[in-house]
Amino acid sequence: MLNIGCHLSVSKGYVALAGDALYTGSSCFQFFTRNPRGGGAKPIDEGDIAEFHQIAAEHGLNSYLAHAPYTINPCAAKPETLEFARQTMADDLERMEWLPGNYYNFHPGSHVGQGVERGIELIAETLNLTLKPHHRTTVLLETMAGKGSEVGGRFEELREIMDRTELSDKLGVCLDTCHVHDAGYDVVNDLDGVLTEFDRVIGLSRLKCVHLNDSKNPFASHKDRHEVIGGGSLGLEAIARIINHPALRRLPFYLETPNELEGYKREIEMLRGLYRE
Ligand code: FE
Ligand code: FE
Ligand code: ZN
User: Fold this and answer.
1) Burial class (CB within 10 angstroms; exposed 0-12, middle 13-18, buried 19+) of 77
2) pTM (predicted TM-score)
3) Which one from 92, 160, 176, 267 is the annotated catalytic residue?
């Protein structure tokens, strides 16, 4: 069965989130740990989360992917900005212990003129200060479009961050189909080639999750604007090949397309129809 879900809000608690997941036909889901524009996280409501776990077990919900806020920069130049990113990630990972064995995805960051090498160094330092042996979460570096001074637009950069992280067995990669296409990896005409390259540079065993998005912009545009499935430069045929590819088909897929719940529900139903059992 295709393991697919969408991005949902946890602002009304985990039980409400499970309701939205089931409504949309999601078997997995992504959520922001806190307001994506930054700020504090709501305290965990133990009753709410216990009830969530019951509902999830009953309905087979799995593979919860928490997304770090967009506003943190794990390789910021300003010490206070860097410190904020590190505190946020450390706090998020402690909170994820309420959902043990799941995933935490973050954007590696923007080097803001310090250079890619310095960016990579700072990101690895952030991970070395943040990851703790007791954490049961797999922390995922997201493949980026390479917009501006973004780090992570090349597979080599992600590999280097992982190599410099002490607890690197806790790390994995989340492949965003819009981002890699925008970054210049041709998942439309040469999906096999892109995955072979991923395997050569990072290793396919590190690939844990897929962000399934179409793109508003052309190949190699370095832009990062998501489009609804089939409405952009990837197109429905390429997306059908992605969800069915032998190296990807067992992974959880998460939609981050511009949709409300109704739109997600329709996309999930359509994609389940395109999946070869
Ligand atoms: Fe992201
Ligand atoms: Fe993404
Ligand atoms: Zn994006």
Assistant:
1) middle
2) 0.98
3) 176
